[in-house]
Design goal:
Helices cover 21% and strands 10% of the residues. It is built from 3 helices and 6 strands.
Length: 120
């Protein structure tokens, strides 16, 4: 898989990353509910086998070398000011929720949300 420089850092990462910060369960401020360790390990190994070299484990970032705004066909607020600012200041942009949290895929239904565990 090809890589690209991340913002003004010296890191060269794949355009597809693995968001792992919520792996580990729901017992902390940024957790997403219960996780299966074996499934988590298998998912990470699959990403590595596919050539992904960017495994995002951070819940917060500093200094700013990249920005991770929500951005999709439904939520385009960043186009007016944020994306141009990042381009002018050589700040990388890795969008969050390009499928609007599943809304654009049809997989995030009211029934699915209603069945989430209490700690998710």
């Amino acid at each position: 898989m090809q890589t690209k420089q991340l913002g003004n850092s010296e890191l060269n990462i794949t355009p597809i990353g693995f968001g792992a910060w919520a792996i580990g369960g729901g017992g902390w401020a940024f957790g997403w509910g219960e996780q299966n360790d074996q499934e988590s390990i298998a998912a990470i190994n699959c990403a590595l086998d596919l050539g992904v070299n960017w495994i995002d484990t951070a819940a917060v970032y500093a200094p700013v070398t990249s920005l991770q705004p929500p951005y999709s066909l439904v939520k385009r607020d960043v186009e007016k000011e944020i994306l141009p600012f990042c381009q002018e200041n050589n700040i990388g942009v890795i969008v969050y929720s390009p499928m609007q949290s599943g809304l654009l895929t049809g997989k995030m239904t009211p029934e699915r949300v209603a069945n989430f565990p209490d700690n998710d």
